[in-house]
TrEMBL record:
Main location, first listed in the record: cytoplasm
Residue ranges of domain Ribosomal RNA adenine methylase transferase N-terminal in the record: 36-212
Keywords: Cytoplasm, Methyltransferase, RNA-binding, rRNA processing, S-adenosyl-L-methionine, Transferase
Name the record gives this protein: Ribosomal RNA small subunit methyltransferase A
General function of this protein: Specifically dimethylates two adjacent adenosines (A1518 and A1519) in the loop of a conserved hairpin near the 3'-end of 16S rRNA in the 30S particle. May play a critical role in biogenesis of 30S subunits.
Catalytic function, reaction form: adenosine(1518)/adenosine(1519) in 16S rRNA + 4 S-adenosyl-L-methionine = N(6)-dimethyladenosine(1518)/N(6)-dimethyladenosine(1519) in 16S rRNA + 4 S-adenosyl-L-homocysteine + 4 H(+)
PROSITE patterns to which the protein is assigned, alphabetical: RRNA_A_DIMETH (PS01131), SAM_RNA_A_N6_MT (PS51689)
CDD domains the record matches: AdoMet_MTases (cd02440)
SUPFAM superfamilies hit by this protein: S-adenosyl-L-methionine-dependent methyltransferases
Biological source species: Caryophanon tenue
C-alpha cells in the first residue's frame, strides 16, 4: 500500500513541487483527510469487478482510493495543469485512466464502452466542483448511461434539496428531477476542515441509486419536468396560479388547467411543494393534450 496523497503534509509537498495554485473558478477544494475518503468510497459498495467514474480528480486524492477498491477507474479532469501531477501521483496504479475534458462536453458513453466493457457495474464517485453540481448530475442521468448510482460530495444545501421529501421547504423541481431517476439519501455531512482550501459552504455526500423503473409512468418525461419547474416558480403561490403563469408563457387557459387538476384529483389551492412525484405524473399526463 502506498502513502496516501490526501494527508495535509503530502498534499502540500505535491502542490509545492508543481507550483500549483488553486483556481476558485474551477471549484478546486481538495480533500486532505484519508479517513473521509475511505468513508466516501465505502458508501459506493465497490467490488473488485466494479468500474468507477470520477469527475475532477484534482491531484488524485480520491482517485487512488477508487483505484484500490475498483477494477477500473476513469477520471475526467478539465484543468490541464493537473495532468503531469496526476501522472506522477497515480503512477503506482495501472487501472486508472485520466481523460482531459470538461465532463459536460465529454462523450462519457464512448469512454465507458472503450474502458469499462469488462466491469460488472459502474458507480460515479466524486468530490464535485460545486459550481456545476446540478448540470453534471443531470447530464449523467439524462444520457442514459449504464451507471448503477452516484456517491458524490456537494454543497450541503444542494444535497438537502436533492434528497428532500414532499412537504418540506427544500422540496422542489430539483428533488423531483433527481428522484425520478434515483433513490436519494444524504450519506455523510462533511466538515470544512477536511478541504484545502476550505470552502465557504458546508458539504455533504449523497448516495443516489438508480431505480429499475421510474416511480411514475408518464406520457412524456420532458413535459413532466416542464410542469414541475412551472409549479415551483413562486413557492408561495398555489399550483393553479403557478401553472397559469408558467405554461405557454402565461397564456395557458384557466379552464383547461382546472380540468386537468380535477382529472388528476389535485386541489387547485395546493402548493407544488405538497405534491408527490406520482401526483405530478398524473397532473403532467392530464395537462399533456393541451399544453405539451
Ligand atoms: N477529487 C479531488 C479531491 O477530492 O481532492 C478534487 C476535487 S475538486 C472539488 C473539483 C475538481 O474538478 C478539480 O480538480 C477541478 O479542476 C475539476 N473540475 C472543475 N470543473 C470541471 C469540469 N467541468 N469537468 C471536469 N473536471 C472539472
Amino acid at each position: 500500500m502506498y502513502k496516501d496523497i490526501a494527508t495535509p503534509v503530502r498534499t502540500k509537498e505535491i502542490l509545492e513541487k508543481y507550483g500549483f495554485s488553486f483556481k476558485k473558478s474551477l471549484g478546486q477544494n481538495f480533500l486532505i483527510d484519508p479517513n473521509i475518503l475511505r468513508n466516501i468510497v465505502s458508501h459506493a459498495y465497490l467490488t473488485e469487478n466494479s468500474g468507477a467514474i470520477e469527475v475532477g480528480p484534482g491531484i488524485g486524492a480520491l482517485t487512488e482510493h477508487l483505484a484500490r477498491g475498483a477494477k477500473k477507474v476513469v477520471s475526467f479532469e478539465i484543468d490541464q495543469r493537473l495532468l503531469p501531477v496526476l501522472e506522477d501521483t497515480l503512477s503506482p496504479y495501472d487501472n486508472v485512466t485520466i481523460v482531459h475534458s470538461d465532463i459536460l462536453k465529454a462523450d462519457v458513453e464512448a469512454v465507458i464502452a472503450e474502458k469499462m466493457a469488462d466491469v460488472d457495474d459502474i458507480m460515479v464517485v466524486a468530490n464535485l466542483p460545486y459550481y456545476v453540481t446540478t448540470p453534471i448530475l443531470m447530464k449523467l442521468l439524462n444520457d442514459r448511461l449504464p451507471i448503477r448510482g452516484f456517491v458524490v460530495m456537494m454543497q450541503k444545501e444542494v444535497a438537502d434539496r436533492i434528497t428532500a421529501k414532499p412537504g418540506t421547504k427544500e422540496y422542489g423541481s430539483l428533488s423531483i428531477a433527481i428522484q425520478y431517476y434515483c433513490t436519494a439519501e444524504v450519506a455523510m455531512i462533511v466538515p470544512k476542515t477536511v478541504f484545502m482550501p476550505q470552502p465557504n459552504v458546508d458539504s455533504a455526500v449523497i448516495r443516489l441509486i438508480r431505480h429499475n423503473e421510474p416511480p411514475v409512468t408518464v406520457i412524456d418525461e420532458d413535459f413532466l419536468f416542464v410542469v414541475t419547474r412551472a409549479s415551483f416558480v413562486q413557492r408561495r403561490k398555489t399550483i393553479f396560479n403557478n401553472l397559469q403563469a408558467g405554461l405557454q408563457n402565461g397564456k395557458a387557459k384557466k379552464d383547461e388547467i382546472l380540468a386537468a387538476l380535477e382529472a388528476a384529483e389535485i386541489d387547485p389551492k395546493r402548493r407544488g411543494e405538497t405534491l408527490s412525484i406520482q401526483e405530478f405524473g398524473r397532473l403532467a399526463d392530464a395537462l399533456h393534450p393541451h399544453f405539451a
